[in-house]
Design goal:
alpha/beta; 5 strands; 9% strand
Length: 404
């Protein structure tokens, strides 16, 4: 269990929904292996330090993107006689929805608080940020920011959630059956959910298409629905008091209408921030096991490990096997070839271009085969061609069909 295998085991177990280091030490003791919590913590710290070059490369890769997803969550951290509430921030680069070739990656940052200065690290002129309505991003969106502000893209999942909570018919029925108090179900909220679901249905059909194709289909199908939705929301808002829950849900969308309609003109934009929420889900799940960070340094290590493990998962790479391999090789690996150790970074791009090349070669080869078959058919005796037709054979069926 020594060397990279032990470090890999402690790393993945520490940040996944699994026993914390003290419970790992107890488990090892039951199996006859004497490992103290401090020994495991030292191995985690040493491994995180050794993996920092990979973390920095992923950081550069994510922050070079023209469009990223962002989100954050709370992390309890030990203080004097109590725990403070720190934050883990995640930024996700994932170009697969619009057929991008760059590999996906998730970048985590740790901070002791949620001040607006922390998102500034992701500022890049003209970058698209898909996030919730956290006020700390407003400085990045400011129109006067020089040389250019970050471009806000709204999250329809957040908007829909507000209406869904007011139209949760099934949830209300369950609470009623248990004798619990149920809030009022609003027909306006139910219709809002249905209107938004129509947009989600369109997005499911265009996922994976190129940005240009997505824009064309959105202009054709989604733009009329968005125009109708705006008119309908405005009409409903006029009927409600300002303090009504429905008015707040409607106002959330109307105040950010430019951000919500931006996807109609840019095929790179997704209509939800689910990519960031999925990447961040590992933190609250793991938090049930390890409960809190022991220090700020522990939170920073957690950000490094979450970055590596979640990036591996996004690229369909087994984190444990990959980490064991990397920890065994990284000490002697040339620094100028560090990208070779990333979980498929660069490989997806090569495969993407290789698939395109293979398709063009296949199509060209199929064309040559078709031409050759037609020439052979033209030179066959008339009787043989008649026999072929009678048997149901043709030049097209003699060769495998190329890709569409």
């Amino acid at each position: 269990m020594g060397g990279p295998q032990l470090s890999r085991h402690a790393l993945v177990r520490e940040v996944r929904p699994a026993p914390a280091l003290n419970r790992q030490a107890e488990r090892f003791a039951r199996e006859g292996v004497a490992l103290s919590t401090s020994t495991l913590a030292d191995r985690v710290g040493a491994a995180a330090f050794a993996l920092m070059p990979l973390y920095r490369r992923i950081e550069t890769h994510v922050l070079d993107a023209t469009r990223i997803h962002g989100d954050d969550t709370t992390v309890p951290v030990m203080a004097k006689g109590k725990t403070d509430t720190a934050r883990l921030w995640v930024y996700v680069r994932d170009d697969r929805p619009f057929a991008g070739c760059d590999p996906p990656a998730a970048l985590f940052h740790y901070s002791r608080d949620r001040r607006g200065e922390h998102p500034r690290r992701i500022w890049r002129p003209g970058r698209i940020l898909q996030a919730d309505a956290y006020g700390g991003y407003n400085e990045l969106y400011a129109p006067g920011r020089q040389p250019a502000p970050v471009i806000e893209a709204g999250c329809f999942a957040h908007a829909r959630r507000k209406f869904f909570e007011l139209a949760d018919v099934e949830g209300a029925a369950r609470r009623r059956s248990r004798g619990e108090h149920t809030g009022m179900i609003y027909p306006i909220a139910l219709e809002a959910v249905q209107r938004l679901d129509a947009l989600f249905e369109i997005e499911r059909g265009i996922n994976g298409k190129t940005a240009a194709e997505r824009v064309a289909l959105r202009q054709e199908r989604s733009a009329p629905l968005m125009a109708d939705l705006h008119a309908w929301l405005t009409a409903q808002l006029a009927k409600l008091s300002r303090s009504h829950d429905l008015a707040k849900a409607i106002g959330y969308m109307l105040r950010r209408w430019d951000a919500f309609t931006r996807f109609l003109d840019d095929g790179r934009i997704c209509i939800t921030n689910n990519a960031a929420e999925r990447a961040l889900r590992c933190v609250p799940l793991g938090r049930k096991a390890w409960l809190f960070c022991g220090s700020d340094r522990g939170g920073q290590r957690a950000a490094v490990l979450y970055t590596l493990i979640q990036t591996a998962r996004l690229n369909d790479v087994d984190p444990q096997a990959w980490l064991a391999d990397v920890l065994a090789r990284i000490a002697g690996h040339p620094a100028h070839r560090i990208d070779e150790l990333l979980p498929r970074t660069g490989v997806r791009t090569q495969e993407c271009y290789r698939r395109r090349h293979d398709r063009s070669i296949h199509a060209e080869a199929h064309g040559h085969r078709q031409l050759h078959a037609n020439r052979n058919a033209a030179h066959r005796p008339q009787g043989q061609r008649s026999a072929d037709l009678a048997a149901g054979r043709s030049a097209d069926l003699d060769h495998p069909q190329g890709p569409a």
